[in-house]
Structure formats: structure tokens, C-alpha cells
Amino acid sequence: MKGSIGMVASAIAAMFFVAGSLPAQGAEAPEHTVQPRVEVAFVLDTTGSMGGLIAGAKEKIWHIANQIVLGKPTPAVSMGLVAYRDKGDEYVTKVFNLTDNIDQVYADLTSFRAQGGGDTPENVNQALHDAVHKLKWSDDSAVLKIIYLVGDCPPHNEYQDVPTYDKTAKAAIEKGININTILCGNNKDAESVWKDVAALADGVFLAIAQDGGVKSIPTPYDKELAELNGKLLDTAVVYGKAGVREKQAELNTSAKSLPTAAAAERSSFAARSGIVARNDLVDDMRNAVVKLENLKPDMLPENVRKMTKDEQTEYLAQKQVERDDLNKQIAEVSKKRNEFVKQQIAEDKTARSGFDQQLLDALKVQAAEKHISYE
């Protein structure tokens, strides 16, 4: 009996090895070029007047990530966040570094609350300075690096403890970072500064409604994709040190309970990007990041730890087979969903005026400079 199991495990291991050299089903075959990368940071005013925009950003963050990976060639995506208010508020800035773990970005963004403020100027200068200098941007000039400054009030230029926005814009350009500005509402003083920042940092100025103008577009494919998102997450085998493993497992659990539209977007992003979850043994073995035999038992989840090596190999191979099938299903349904959304936007021009669509329109133009194209 043991010999039979060993033969089966060896056969599956061979299949797993071959599968590891092929692109995931539903994804495009990789080209013989370096994968492009996009780094995006959102600098968000989180004072009381920004409640509508923050709610819309929470709703649309997976849509934004999903749309970015629709570029050709498919780019790798990292996102960061800088929340800002003013002196005397609960905080001046909160900085969340760039990461390709979009589940973590969503969790961080969900923690934002629109509170504080009261006087018109906010500490915009500190927020921009932190975005340019505290986030860990790539040094690679081929990487598309963009900051989106989103707010409704001008800066305190009288503060002496931080450079004014013009100096920070110059520093951004020196680092190869473009700053796009999105003005919420119609404050004329803020509009003047937002236009100035965009001009100084090779960016684009955009104006939207005070509440962000985000428009939800329900589709008949959302429920199916949301269910596939849960099934896809079930193929993840989270490994690593105990604290890291537990944190990612919590993120995976949260990702299963996303609102339907966000879960639909997340499944499409995962299938397109090839990233189901971070610290996932299935992906990391397939991509030769780790070898099963090099992992200590305490790095593995408890159920896998109890298996023999042959059983572990068979288990991981089966998870990969399940994932490939799910990715294929998601790719097919996502294509129908994207076509439906495009049609709805074409019929309702107001859908193009929201925070998410304006942001993506600006990004697509700048992506062309890095040889990333969008339909």
C-alpha cells in the first residue's frame, strides 16, 4: 500500500513540476520580457468633509487594482496609503508602505475614518513629503510610480517644519514619481494648489464631486465571481513563521467575506495577477520561491504538518489543479463582466466622472510612457 501511495505521489509531483513551468490557465502566456511594474500611492485627506470619498475608495480599491492589471503586458502592482489631517487632530499623517498585498491595503483603507478638521487648510505639505520620502519607492526608472493627492482643502504653507509642496514636487520628479491631483468639491484656493502640484510633478489635475462621485455598477456576474473568490482562497496554503501565517490567514478569512462586488473584483485580480494570497505555499512552490523539503515543520499549517512528505506533495499538487480550473472559470466570467461594465459606462456618462474612473483614465495615459497599454 505504501509503495502504491509513493508511486501516485511521484506521478503527481511530476505533473506539479511540469505545471509549474506553465502559465496559470486563464492567464496570458508570459512574454520574454521583464514584467512591468506599477507603484501607486493614495494620499487621502481623512478629515470630516471627506467621508463620501473615503467610503467610495473603500468600495472601489479592488476595482482599481483589477483594472491596473488589465494592462498589456500584465503589470505587477504595489499600493501604498498616506492618510492626513492637521496639527491638533488625532494625527497629522498615517503612512502605510507600498505593498503588493492588496488584501492588506484594503484592510488598512478600511480602518480610515473621516474625522477632525474644522478649519479650511490641512497639512497637505506633510502628507506629500511623507508620500515621497517615507514610502519605499523602487529605484528602477522603468517602474511607473504615481501619487494621487486627493483632498478638498489647501495646505498650511506657513508651517516651517516641512517643505512646501513645490519643493516636494521637485523631489518627486527627481525620484521618477508623477503626482496626479484629484480635487473634491470646488474650493478655489485648493484648486489653485492642486493644479500647481500637478504641473510641477508632471501629473494631471482632476476635479470630482465632493463625495467622490463613485458609482456602483452591479452586474449579473458578481455573485458567481464572489463565490469563485471564496473557492480560490480555499486553495491557498499559508505558510511561514507563526505570526506571519496567522496574520495572512486572517486577511484570507476577511477576503472571503468582502461585499459581493469587491469579491468579484478580487477574484478577477487574483486570476489575472496570479496572486491568490501572500505566503501561499502553492504559488511559491510553483514559482520556485521555496522548496517543500527546505521548510521546517513549524513553518507549515497544522493540517499539512501532520502529513507525510508524499501526502504533502499530493495535497499541494491537488490544490494547484483546483486553482488552475478556478482561474480558467474566473477568466471566462470576468471577460463577460468587463464587457457588461463597459456597456453600462458607455450608456451612463456620469459613471466616468467618479474618483475611480478619473484615477484610472489618468493612469492609463502615464502607463503608455512605460510601454503598458490599455484598451
What class, by secondary structure content? alpha/beta
Number of strands: 6
Q: How many structural domains?
A: 2
CATH class of the largest domain: Alpha Beta
Radius of gyration: 22 Å
Numbering strands along the chain, what is their spatial order in the largest sheet?
3-2-1-4-5-6
Beta-strand portion reads: 5-15%
Descriptive tags:
Rossmann fold, 2 domains, alpha/beta, globular, 375 residues, disordered N terminus, 6-stranded mixed β-sheet, single chain, 13 helices
What does this structure look like?
The chain is α/β, with parallel strands linked by helices and 375 residues long. The chain has 2 domains: 37-214 and 348-370, 3-Layer(aba) Sandwich (Rossmann fold), CATH 3.40.50.410; 217-347, no CATH class. It contains 13 helices and 6 strands. The chain has helices at residues 2-20, 51-68, 102-110, 124-133, 165-174, 188-200, 222-233, 242-256, 260-273, 281-286, 302-305, 309-347, 355-367, and strands at 37-45, 76-84, 93-99, 144-151, 177-184, 205-208. Strands 3-2-1-4-5-6 form a 6-stranded mixed sheet, with helices on both faces. Helix 6 (188-200) links the parallel strand 5 (177-184) and strand 6. Helix 7 (222-233) runs antiparallel to helix 8. The longest helix is centred in the C-terminal third of the chain and has 39 residues, at 309-347. The model is unreliable at 1-32 (pLDDT under 50).
How is this fold's topology laid out?
Blueprint: H1 2-20, E1 37-45, H2 51-68, E2 76-84, E3 93-99, H3 102-110, H4 124-133, E4 144-151, H5 165-174, E5 177-184, H6 188-200, E6 205-208, H7 222-233, H8 242-256, H9 260-273, H10 281-286, H11 302-305, H12 309-347, H13 355-367
Parallel strand pairs: 1-2, 1-4, 4-5, 5-6
Antiparallel strand pairs: 2-3
Helix pairs in contact: 1-12, 2-3, 2-9, 2-13, 4-5, 5-6, 7-8, 7-9, 7-12, 9-12
